[in-house]
Write a structure and sequence with these properties.
By secondary structure, the protein is α/β, with parallel strands linked by helices. Helix content is 27%, strand content 22%. The protein folds into two domains: 3-180 and 234-307, Aldolase class I (TIM Barrel), CATH 3.20.20; 329-410, Translation factors (Elongation Factor Tu (Ef-tu), domain 3, Beta Barrel), CATH 2.40.30.10. The two termini are 45 Å apart.
Length: 411
């Protein structure tokens, strides 16, 4: 493959942006595009999301870096919400978003009417699992479909082969999985009154369940499977070791889940996949596998046990023992300046002289930074950094570290 063709056909890395901080982290650490929500109609009500003014700022910032912005409008709106849609869509179009991600046909048609220049991407919530549905959405005017997460490699390849080549195909490659098909879940609504299909899921699938018999109130019987009772608690997806297979089946955009997760999570996962994808293009072999340093980066973020989801067909999908996360690292600080023999950090979690920090520069391998001594903003020597956002200077004479880089500590 020529370099020209590689550039033209280069896969897109699509990162989550729950707020402006996370958007800037995604851009800094290598995203080609970001997806985000306004204050309505997005499937992550728990994220901060973007006001109209913040959306304008976000689009300007992303576009200045050559990064596209896709706005999620993928809830299933009720009658009393539909009348708010035209103004919302028009404002987003005026802000300059590149696409609307929609799940509802009525929302799609309204968007085409009031904002005809904005591309339409069909959300995974629509459950696109076959070439007939994908093709029909294309003929209705969609530029892209986001596939249902329940497909394996062969199904995606067949869908790609039988759909118009102009139709883009997006698929999730990393992040949380939903126990219900394409996220169409009613558990949260029934148990808590929070509607998962309108962005307010309480995640009851992560809970521990017991069985009770109606004539024995108060007596609980475990619903036990193999190792535990968290029978619906899905593992997280991680496909970073399968870059060649993902590309071979014709996916246009690799999507990272996590709009409700931290800025550090956004940065670290984007950084790992950016380096993995670039590594493949440097060595486009069907046997390509990212090096161990890149793979290790995904262990340094908060995550559930990893799996390959449905891509390989039959890997176990649940973490039965608990509903929690694996957390081996925390953010120690963020780089504010680097030069004059010091790296200056804004502290996020306590660290001390004698600790070893783990620096995560964008686009480069991480490296360790032993804290042999440190100083506060007045230049006084200190033994620890216990206060949030305090300024800390650490002796350093290595290569410059980009401002905004995350610095971690194990524990």
């Amino acid at each position: 493959m020529s370099n020209t063709n590689q550039e033209e056909n280069r896969v897109e890395l699509l990162s989550p942006a729950g707020d402006i901080e996370r958007l800037k982290c995604a851009v800094m650490y290598g995203a080609d595009a970001v997806y985000l929500a306004g204050t309505m109609f997005g499937m992550r009500a728990g994220a901060n999301n973007f006001t109209r003014e913040q959306l304008v700022e976000a689009v300007k910032f992303a576009h200045a870096a050559g990064v596209k912005v896709y706005l999620t409008c993928n809830t299933i709106p009720h009658n009393n919400e539909v009348e708010k849609l035209p103004a919302f869509l028009e404002a987003a179009a005026d802000a300059g978003v590149d696409a609307f991600i929609v799940a509802d046909i009525g929302v799609m048609r309204l968007a085409q009417k009031v904002a005809p220049r904005v591309h339409i991407h069909i959300s995974t919530q629509a459950g696109v699992a076959n070439y007939a549905t994908a093709s029909e959405f294309y003929h209705m005017g969609a530029a892209r479909v986001v596939l249902a997460r329940e497909l394996h490699f062969d199904e995606i390849a067949a869908l790609r082969a039988k759909t118009p080549k102009e139709l883009e195909i997006e698929a999730f490659v990393h992040g949380s999985m939903c126990v219900s098909f394409s996220g169409r879940c009613l558990l949260s609504s029934y148990l808590t009154g929070r509607d998962a299909n309108r962005g307010d899921c309480a995640q009851p699938c992560r809970w521990k369940y017991y069985l009770t018999e109606e004539k024995r109130p108060g007596q609980q019987f475990e619903i036990f499977e193999d190792k535990g009772t968290h029978i619906m608690n899905s593992r997280d997806m991680c496909m970073i070791e399968y870059i060649p297979q993902l590309m071979a089946c014709g996916i246009t955009s690799f999507k990272l889940e996590g709009r409700a997760k931290s800025a550090y999570y956004t940065a670290a996962v984007t950084n790992a996949y950016r380096q993995a994808i670039d590594g493949y293009y440097d060595n486009p072999s069907p046997n390509y596998r990212p090096n161990a340093v890149i793979l290790d980066e995904l262990r340094k973020v908060s995550h559930r046990e990893y799996s390959t989801g449905f891509y390989l067909g039959s890997e176990p999908g649940q973490v039965l023992e608990n509903g929690g996360y694996v957390r081996e690292y925390k953010v120690a600080g963020m780089v504010e300046d680097c030069g004059g023999g010091f790296v200056t950090l804004s502290q996020r979690n306590k660290f001390c002289v004698g600790d070893t920090l783990d620096v995560m520069p964008p686009g480069k391998p991480p490296f360790l930074l032993p804290v042999t001594e440190m100083f506060n903003s007045e230049g006084s020597a200190i033994e620890s950094a216990p206060h949030a956002t305090m300024t800390v200077k650490i002796p350093y004479d290595g290569e410059p570290i980009a401002k905004g880089s995350f610095v971690r500590i194990r524990g």
